[in-house]
Amino acid sequence: MTKRVYEAAKEYGVPAKTVIKTLEDHHIKAGNFTGIDANMKSILDASFKKGAKGEAQRGQKQENKQTGEGTSRKVNETSRQNKNKKQGNTPKQNNQNHDKKRQNQGNAQNQPNRAAKNSQGQNQGNRPQNSHKGGNNAGQNTQGQQGDSKRTKYFGHSQGGNDGNNRNNSKNKRGGQNNRNNNKNNGSRPHTLLSNVLNKGKHNKNKRNQKHQAPVAAEAPKKKNYPTSVELPETIIVKDFAERLGRDVGEVMKKLLMGGIMATINQELDFDTASLIADEFGVTVTKEAPPEDPTEIEEIIDPPETLKTRPPVVTIMGHVDHGKTSLLDAIRQTNVTSHEAGGITQHIGAYQVRYEGKKITFMDTPGHEAFTAMRARGAQVTDIAVLVVAADDGVMPQTVESINHAKSAGVPIIVAINKIDKESANPEHVMQQLTEYGLISEDWGGDTIMVPVSAHKKIGLDDLLENILVLAEVQDLKANPNRPAQGVVIEAKLDKGRGPVASVLIQKGTLRVGDTIIVGTCFGKVRAMNNERGERVKKAEPSIPVEILGLNDVPEAGDILNVTDEKTARSVAEKRLEKKRSSELHVNAKVTLDDLFNQIQQGELKELPLIIKGDVQGSVEALSQSLMGIKSDEVRIAIVHSGVGAINESDIMLASASNALIIGFNVRPDAAARKMAEHEKVDMRMYRVIYDAINDVEAAIKGMLEKKYEEKIVGRAEVRKVITTPKVIVGGSYVKEGKITSTSKIRLIRNGIVVHEGEIDGLRRFKDDVKEVAAGYECGITLEKYRDIKEGDEIEAYEMVEVEPE
């Protein structure tokens, strides 16, 4: 960094004007703020390379300000000559001066009652005579009375001899008493007075030298100890960043500016940017550990020696009516099917069975598309998925959904080909279909276990259970039972007689009656536990499902259960609830895709909630992931709900409550949902192509959403004769209804199937080009970039008409 002249002067220990004078002697014009280049530095180094020389010059400057008593010191020749011209007093003259002063003092003593003003006037009247005679010490000094005044300023009292004392007498108005004190102070021996003055002047000069030299001496060795390594969070403001580096904010902002970053003192820097700037200062940066989330319970790490084998958790998945519940019923040797409404499982149930002395926990997820979300949770808490496929129906849409859920959860699949007792059963066909989804049977060289079973006649059940245990043994499923319990909520409800009830699958540790638990935003003490048969139990070990009572509220399915102390449970639950409420705050105005950009610009919208419904789960997931990937600084995409099936009233109610948009992919709203959407002013958008939905949302966020258009049929014509020319194919047509215009978009329909969509290249009537042909007239039509026209084809002309916003 280039130094200025005044900074260089401090470094060399000389006044700035001395540095400027030295540079002017070398024909270089400079001022206090002139930068020192290499040439200047070499000149100054040669002139001031010895610290003693600089100190002598500082002493010279200070000596010039003093009384001139330091005539014995060595100074340059010019200064000495100037002083000799001003001085000229001898000790003899000094003695005369002192005698004259004593006479004046005697006069003051003899007239003690005279007013101080007269005394002052008399004393002042003596000064010209003394000065004329070369009398007092002030006359001897090179700077005279100026030296007295400066010494009075620095040291609080005058050391300038009789003249200073007389001035004190007049100011203090003390009369003869002060003159007596002056006689005592001055003494009667002139040589003693001179030596005292010289000694005091020398002492004062040294004292002033020390005063002026002290800061320079302190500055020279002073050097800041900058940190060599710092820890930084993910983001940090410029001011805090500078403090951690031990640097001035201006230095940091200068580095940022040099790096092309315009930042304010309170602007946030990300970790990467801060790392680059720190590197410029030679500081190594490490990332700080993120602060602990007060809403999280600390995870307990189980040592390997504490782990014990646990039963596998198996999920039964598959298409509706393929026999999932019947298969589970056959395995459990109980009958629950008759108690289920409509033959569809109403809630996720969990049951435990024994086979060859070993336990297996089964979870039954609903097969209907309305319970897709439940099925997804079921796959995530299980170890093995049993996919039930009917041998007569084969692979169905929900079968594919179940396969995708299991694969996304990383759960191995065992295929149970059910209903093999039916005459129409074709297991080979089912196995062939499953290969299209990556499930290849072991018999065909794959790694998927496929077991033919019949739930009705209980065929192949032992093979299925045996394969489940073999696969569980390969997975080496273990957990620590001797620790506080941790589990997951399968389902929860509010029972009128028992209060909040939750079905929980224990995953780690052992849950006991009396344990204090926290489940999501709920907490409480376990008052009672029931197993799947309704029997009271006192404890539940890993992989055991139980129904618990004692919570203060109803938790949500998928919430994690942890055992902790009451104080922690209450505190964490309250913080989670507060966090949940704050995240659910939203603006009252309904969001529409058309008005989305305006709301973003006005700061009314920071988050865009979406509800996504699709025909199949794969499409819903793909659309959800694509929409979540849209990047915007102004608004964040949030998927409130996604599911498979038609848009229903429940979706409209959720959209109204959460201020969400509904995006439908290959689905339509039912009549009741459409009516409710109009009443609640909920915006619904239907798409058949995923990219159209993504582009619309992106355009809405950026304020470039295109206007709505709808198709309007303007006319139809029938091709009655095809005329072939070297250049084009002309369709001799008859306009049946409406009109055909030269600017219309057209569809070429053959046997009810659209074979081409495009635009009209030419429209003629006889030999003339025309703009339109009305119904009942013949015309010749050529299509742009298309020649495959045949007799009997129908040409449908349409236009895209802008729809006025409601």
> What structural category characterises the helix and strand content?
alpha+beta
Total individual domains: 6
Order of strands, main sheet, comes to 7-8-6-9-10-11
Q: Enter the CATH topology name of the largest domain.
A: Rossmann fold
Report the average pLDDT across residues. Answer: 73
- The first-level CATH class name of the largest domain: Alpha Beta
Low-confidence stretches: 50-191, 214-221, 334-348, 366-379
Question: What does this molecule look like?
Answer:
The structure is a single chain. It is built from 26 helices and 33 strands. It has 806 residues and is α+β, with helices and mostly antiparallel strands. Residues 50-191, 214-221, 334-348 and 366-379 have low confidence and may be disordered. A hairpin with a 3-residue loop joins strand 13 (486-495) and strand 14 (499-508). It folds into 6 domains: 82-219, no CATH class; 229-287, Orthogonal Bundle (Arc Repressor Mutant, subunit A); 311-476, P-loop containing nucleotide triphosphate hydrolases (Rossmann fold, 3-Layer(aba) Sandwich); 486-567, Translation factors (Elongation Factor Tu (Ef-tu), domain 3); 596-702, Translation initiation factor IF- 2, domain 3 (Rossmann fold), CATH 3.40.50.10050; 709-802, Translation factors (Elongation Factor Tu (Ef-tu), domain 3), CATH 2.40.30.10. The two termini are 66 Å apart.
Task: Provide a quick synopsis of the model.
The protein is 38% helix and 25% strand.
Highlighted features:
nucleotide-binding, Rossmann fold, translation initiation factor activity, initiation factor, single chain, cytoplasm, Translation initiation factor IF-2, 33 strands, 6-stranded mixed sheet, 806 residues, Arc Repressor Mutant, subunit A, 38% helix, alpha+beta, 6 domains
